[in-house]
Design goal:
Elements: H1 2-28, E1 36-40, E2 43-47, H2 55-70, E3 81-85, H3 91-95, E4 104-107, E5 110-113, E6 123-126, E7 129-132, H4 133-150, H5 163-174, H6 176-179, H7 186-194, H8 198-201, E8 204-208, E9 211-214, H9 215-230, H10 235-240, H11 245-258
Helix pairs in contact: 2-4, 4-5, 5-9, 7-9
This protein binds zinc ion.
Residues 139, 143, 167, 170 line the site of zinc ion.
Length: 259
């Protein structure tokens, strides 16, 4: 009797270990769960058998995101991006084990869209937000490059730089069209943030018109933008900079007030 119980426990543990290892392997290598794929330049896009993908319309979006990321100091021309359209795939549930309620996520070398994408209009529609698909894709690509350059262990779930550096830089790269628009002015953007009342910016903030994001995405973006465009720092230097977030923020506000 005892032996049977022991064997059962050992068997259960072994099964649990194998199942966990299997799930972890799938998070890194989910290709087998997707029936279809297409290659385009530096991208491979994976999707379900029954998913009707408009490849013609998707290509300029992939090109647009690539052009944004190309300007980043982390750009690596040899890098290949794997994009998974997972909203109607079992993989969506598996990768959700990592936590977080997100529209898209970069894990290791994979970019996963967890919500359906509107390729024709270059948008993602979510909770009243209409989100620029090119910008989201570029943002996730920068995460892949961060991990590619600095290592998965330094840019992973367990260990990563402060959130404003982790998320601010991908936003800075991905929002280039907005930052280049004629009416855009960093000083006005800082002012918009500091003059917003607390409830308006406590958790989320309108990062670009029509898109509310967790506040640190926006705050991180303007801080990275200030350090790079006004102070001439590289992302590498920003990562090495030991100053506290609030010290950098205060310096930025002082700069704004001097203008
Ligand atoms: Zn991000």
């Amino acid at each position: 009797m005892k032996k049977t119980i022991k064997r059962t426990i050992v068997g259960t543990l072994l099964f649990a270990t194998m199942a966990t290892a299997g799930l972890v392997a799938l998070i890194f290598y989910p290709q087998s769960l997707f029936a279809n794929k297409f290659d385009y330049n530096q991208f491979t896009v994976y999707y379900n058998k029954d998913y009707k993908i408009d490849k013609e319309a998707f290509q300029p979006i992939l090109d647009g995101a690539y052009r944004l990321v190309e300007k980043s100091e982390l750009h690596n021309p040899d890098f290949k991006y794997k994009v998974f359209l997972a909203h109607n795939n079992i993989f969506n549930k598996i990768e959700s084990l990592q936590g977080g309620d997100v529209l898209a996520r970069a894990t290791a070398w994979n970019i996963v869209f967890k919500t359906d994408i509107d390729i024709k209009n270059n948008r993602i529609h979510s909770g009243g937000n209409s989100i620029d698909l090119t910008a989201i894709l570029a943002h996730e690509m920068v995460h892949i490059l961060q991990a590619g350059k600095y290592g998965l262990l330094n840019f992973g779930l367990l260990k990563h730089p402060p959130m404003w550096k982790l998320e601010g830089y991908p936003e800075y790269v991905a929002r280039r069209a907005y930052l280049n628009s004629e009416t855009y002015d960093l000083r006005k953007e800082i002012q918009r943030f500091i003059s917003a009342d607390i409830p308006t910016k406590q958790e989320s903030f309108e990062a670009v018109p029509g898109h509310f994001m967790p506040t640190y995405y926006f705050k991180g973006r303007i801080m990275v933008e200030y350090l790079m465009d006004q102070k001439g720092m590289s992302y590498d230097e920003i990562l090495k900079d030991q100053r506290a977030e609030e010290a950098v923020f205060k310096e930025m506000v002082d700069w704004m007030n001097e203008q």
